[in-house]
Amino acid sequence: MRTRHREPQTLGEGTLERMARILAARNIDPGAAPAQDPETVSPLEALSAGMPPRYRAAVADHPQVLAWVRTVAEAAVAPNQGARRQVATGPSLLMAGVVGAGKTHQAYGAVRKLVQSGVGVRWRATTAADLYADLRPRPGADSERELAAVSRCPLLIIDDLGAAKASEWVEEVTYRLINRRYNYELPTLITTNLAIRDLRTHLGDRVASRLAQMTTRVEFEQVDRRRHRLAA
């Protein structure tokens, strides 16, 4: 059987014109250089972009905070084979001390340390006052949906717990939030200006009981570091 050889085919002028019109309609320049891939953003850079500017360089150096980071990092799991390990469950931390003792700095530093250890972190941060403002029923807002989202977040920072004025509604909302995180063993970083012995009075028995079991308690030095730095 003889093999037939075909000459290379060339595109006619009509075909070239049609292709040119199609490319022009799609704003494609056939002579342009291929698009470059965007620069890769590191996990730490992505984390910092979502942090308040004051805490983007926060460093956790308290021994108990660093121990918490190690425990949570060791408990991280990969959602599927080959995927990056993610924070899933773990213990919580309750940091108590006077205003300006460095509790919030340590909390944000702990999240940065987790990312630096190589695990992925889906997290949220809020003050207790902002949390209650977001959850207070009002027209056009789905407070129940917001409470569910905060409750299920894998890692949550609650700053200044106990600073809001006590009421039955505040106690109930705090209980629902803490109880869900307690039941599902979701790591929570909590700061408070209250002495630990005063938590029960301000937050109620149900909240205080769960916090006692789910958190490691860290007492900070009774020194306002902000004022100390200003005076130095």
Question: What's the topology here?
Answer:
Elements: H1 13-25, H2 43-49, H3 63-75, E1 92-96, H4 103-116, E2 123-127, H5 128-135, H6 143-152, E3 155-159, H7 168-183, E4 188-192, H8 199-203, H9 205-214, E5 215-219, H10 225-231
Helix pairs in contact: 3-4, 6-7, 7-9
Overall pLDDT metric:
86
What amount of the residues lies in strands?
A: 5-15%
Q: Please outline the major beta sheet.
A: 5 strands, parallel
Count of DSSP strands: 5
Tally of individual helices: 10
Low-confidence stretches: none
Which structural class should the secondary elements be placed in? alpha/beta
Q: Overall 3D geometry?
A: elongated
Strand order of the largest sheet: 2-3-4-1-5
| Distance N to C terminus | 97 Å
Radius of gyration: 27 Å
Order of helices and strands: HHHEHEHHEHEHHEH
Helix content, binned percent: 40-55%
Structural overview:
The chain has about 230 residues and is an alpha/beta fold. The chain has helices at about 15-25, 45-50, 65-75, 105-115, 130-135, 145-150, 170-185, 200-205, 205-215, 225-230, and strands at about 90-95, 125, 155-160, 190, 215-220. The chain has a 5-stranded parallel sheet with strand order 2-3-4-1-5. Helix 3 (about 65-75) runs parallel beside helix 4. The longest helix is centred in the last third of the chain and has 16 residues, at about 170-185. The termini are far apart.
State the main characteristics.
single chain, 232 residues, alpha/beta, five-stranded parallel beta sheet, 10 helices, elongated
Describe, in short, the structure shown.
This protein is α/β, with parallel strands linked by helices and 232 residues long. 44% of the residues lie in helices and 11% in strands.
